[in-house]
Each structure stands twice: as C-alpha cells, then as structure tokens.
Amino acid sequence: MTAVPAEWVDKDRRHLRVEQSAIGDKIYGIITAGCALIVPAMVVAIAIAIFAAAWPAFAKLGLSILTSSDWDVANGHFGAAPALFGTLVSSAVALVIATPLAVGVAIFLSEFSPAWLRSPVAFLVDLLAAIPSVVYGLWGIFVLIPIMREHVMPFLRDTLHLGATPFFSGAAYGPSMLTAGVILAIMCLPSISAVSREVLLAVPRSQREAALALGATRWEMIRDAVIPFARSGIVGGIILGLGRALGETMAVTMVIGNRPEISASLFAPGYTMASLIANEFSEATNDLHLSALMAVGAILFVITLIVNAIARWLVWGVAREKRK
Amino acid sequence: MRATKLAALILLIAACGKESASNSSTASSTSSGGSVDLTGAGATFPYPIYSKWFADYAKQTGVKINYQSIGSGGGIRQLSEQTVDFGASDSPMSDDDLAKAKGGPVLHIPTVLGAVVITYNLPGLSAPINLTSSAIADIFAGRITKWSDTRIGSLNPGVKLPSTDILVVHRSDGSGTTFIFTDYLSKAVPAWNSSVGKGKEVKWPVGLGAKGNEGVAGQVKQTPGAVGYVELAYAKQNNLPFAAITNKSGKNVLASVAGVTAAAAGAAQTLPANTDYRISIVDAPGADSYPISSFTWILVYQRQRDATKGKKLVDFLNWALTTGENEASSLDYAPLPADMAAKVKARLSTIMLAQPK
Fold it and tell me: How far is A268 from chain B (nearest CA, A)?
C-alpha cells in the first residue's frame, strides 16, 4: 500500500458519508445490531429457561442438592455433591496433566521449532480439538482404559508406591476419575496450546533481543523476558481449557464409571454433572427428577460462565498490554 | 461454549415438552416434507423392530410413520403434551403420568417382549453358569464379592469357578433394561425390594456405570470377573455369554425368544379380563418361562382427536399385532402369545375416533 497522509483519508471518509446518503449504512447497521443482540438474548433466554425449570428442585431441595451425596431417584433423593466433586476433580486432573504439555508445545513452537516444523505440529495439535468427543470416548473404552488398567494404574500404585497415599489406592478397573482426567487433558490440550502459542508469538521481538543483548541464554530469555509478558494470556488459555473440561459430556461419561460417590482415590469411579444429565435426562419422567437435573444444569451453567468470564478477562488483559 | 451448547439442548428439550402442545398439527409435517402420516416417539429398546415394521408397513400400505427413539421418558412426555400421535415406553405409565396426559385416557398396547440377560466374563468356562434370583441380588448388592463364593458354587456343581473378584457393571443411563432387571430382583428378592428397589435408574450399592448396552458389554468383555446385564437381543447379536436363570418352577432357563413368550403366556393366565396391560411379567410362572422379561408398549389415546389419523393408527396397530408379530423373532424380540395378541386387538376396537369436522 502506498503511504497516504492520515488527514487525507479522514477527509475522504467524511466526504463519502455525506454523499451516499445513509440509507444503506442504516440498514446494514440495523442488521448487524440485530445479529449482535440475538446472541446475548439467546444466552439470557437459555439461562431463564434453565433456572425456571430448575426452580421447583431448588425450592424443594434447597442447598441439599449441592451438599448431599445421596442421588437415589427411586426414593426421591437428589444430592448432586458427588457429581459436582467429580466435575471439579476430573477437570483439575486434566489441567494438571495438560498444562505443562500444552505450554511446552507452545514454547517449543514459538521459540525453538525450525520453521518447517512449526505449522505441521501446530496443525496436528489443533486437530485434536476437531475430533468429536464420542470418538474420544470410544478410543477411551477400547484403548485408554486397558492401558490404564494394565499399565498406568499398577505402575502408579505399585511401582511408584503411590498406593500408600489414599489418592492412588484401591482396585484398578480402568474406568475412573483418573482415566476421565487423562481423556479431558487430551481434549483441552489444543485450546491451551493454541492460545499460549498466540500470546507467546505476540511477545515483541525487541523484548527477546533486549534479553539476549544483556547476555541471557535462550532459556533465561524465555523465562525472564517472554513468559512474564505472556503469563496472563497463558492463564487465560488454561482457563479456556478448563471451560472445555468442565462441560465435556460424552467422552467422560464413557470412561468415568458413573458412580455417584465421593472417593479420595483417583482410581475409583466417579461422576460429573454433565454426565449425570446426559445419562438420566432422556428417561426422566418424574417432575422432581427432571427439575433436579435442570438444577444440576443450572449449577454447571453458572460455573462455566464464571470460568469463561475469568478467561476472557485475562486474555483481554494481554491485549490491553500489547496495545500500550 | 460447551455449557451454552448443553444449555441450548436442555432448552430445546424443555421447549419440546412445554410449549409444543399448540403445534401438534405441524409436528408431523416438519419431519419429512409433509408426507408423513403418523408420528411417534419413545423407547429406544424396540426401535429396531419398530423401524422394520414402519418400513414394511409403508411398503404395503403407503402409510408413512415417523418414529423418534428419544427414550421412554421423552415418549411419555410428548404423548402427554399431544405432540405425537403415539408414544412408546418400556415401562408402564404411572397413575400420576396417566392423570397428567392432556388428551384423556391412554391405552397401553403391548407390542413385543424383551428380556434381560446376565452376561459375565469368566475365561475358560464354556457352558453357561446357573444363577438364582437371590444369587444375582447378592452379587449386584455386593454381598457376594468373589466368583468362588459357595452361594454361586452350590448352584453350579462340577464347575470350577475362579476366585476372581466380581466387578459389577450396570447401566448409567436411565433405561428400560434397568427397570426390567430391578423389577425382577424386587419381585423375587424381598431384601432387594426394601433396599435398592426398582426404577429406570437406581442407587447401585456397588459397581461401575456404563452407558448403553454397548457400554456394559464392552466393560464386561474387557474385565475378567466382570458381570453385567444387557438386553437379550443385544447379547445374541454380539454372541455374549449369558447365565441360565432359575425360574419360579425351579428350572434353569437360558433366555430365548420362546422362553420369553412363555413367560408372557404364564403371566397371562392370571390376568383379569379387564386388564389395562400395565403388567409386569417378571418372575412369571411356567416351566419354560424366562423370568427377566417384559412387554414394551405403544401408548395411544383412547379418544383420537383426528379421525383420519386415528384410523390410520388403529389400522397400523392391528397390522402390527398380526403380521408384525411374525417378524419379531427374526430380530430377537419375542412375539406376544397368540391368544394375548387377539385380546389386545379386541381392545383396539375401544379406540374412539372423533367425527370429522
């Protein structure tokens, strides 16, 4: 593009506006405003519908839906504490596994990778996000669960003697909180690594050059000049991954063992809120049961909303810093 | 993002249930370009045989039926809201459900029978093992934890059972299969009835939950020592081993189409003449009766608002109970006993058609 003095452009734009009356612009403006309003309106409508449907359960059960561990449909007890626990724990396990991997991939791709390797690896990592979750679930049942049962779990429990702690004790059947965490880690890895890669690449060259000029090694340059700059963006990416892990339904349902019980051991089967809804919704006829499932949905909705809001806020933080 | 998708799904389902009573006339026309004559929704268990029936019936008569296998719960809800012309369910509607149905009295039309089998993974055993109701209840309640337990051994003289731990696998999703299985245990074993009870989902004392027949079967196949329950049709089509169950007459019966029909015939003997067919046939009398069996029902309103549709529906049900029954066993569903099919057909004549306006 040829360089044009800024004041010319401004003048021209003003000129155009006056000339071609505003009708086209107005219509265009109204259409886009409509699009922009419909989406938030849908979110609000969904929230209202869920909370309205969940209200009878909240009114009847009160806080016990969050605190009680007794989910017994036949006797009308609806305590979703194990599902809430399972959602949080499986997501936490996922992040513990996925974060170092994803950030490692991102650092390699932005700092070390030869140029020819960068886009194929990035593409393959991003491709993980495109695999349907039921495919992950099937892979989980037929590949991951046997590996976990025969190799990973005995290794953790017996070879590393982690079985002495309550967290890795008990029988290793395969379907478990740990297996669910591993599946979720693979599923939320691409969002963490994609966001991290972007924010690392956004770190100005001058920042890196300054660190190197001061005599830093490559590792020191990354540690002291690049990562601090990208930190909040990476955290935002992690939280986006957490959002994915919290809401993931099908793959988790297929490998977690679906047992509504709170257990300290990651080898024990667990349950998540999303799988509880997926499992029971289609056959729920009793009004309180349906409403209780809606209430679980409402709680999950609130949790994911909060998590996503935090992520956006952190990512915006990076964008603001960049603009300065 | 995920939450929004999930929430949208929930909203959609809720909206179907709540607000669509007014657009029942459009429901049938949206599904397939206006050429569909009847719409139904409900149970997934009989879906294979129903879809065969609908296809054959369309070929023979040109009447097209669109069936959505959304689950029994959804089928009952949609029928109650009059969004569909008929519902389908693996468990009978409760009195509460019936009272809530907006279109008046609902008839339960038994169509075919299904059975639930106990499948297990015991390497090295070729012949099926024998189990009684109390042994099954003890296994699924966690009171028997090893295959070498004498309570199993005494039922299987001469069989060398391993000392493996038992891993119980049950359904995690709400399911008619679970209903039939827990209904059987509740009826045959008082201790089960007072502790776990029956339902499409119950609070299992032990074990892992897996989604769908395929989930249970997959987990059992992978884990030596595992035991679970699946539909007979699924077990047969996938060549799963299953146990012979001791029936009320004390005979060990392997599940089969004939054994299931025999159970229905056994249960039918004690039926009152005015039965509404909301009956359980688990633990049925009869030497050859397979005890873990159940009907699956099509649900229709006794008063049909639309005479044309109502007539098509009655015609179809008559066809299903005559020609359709003969096709059932090819897909491993048990047909109704002949005299019962005749009685159910007589009951179809009580369906009233509104006068065309």
Answer: 9
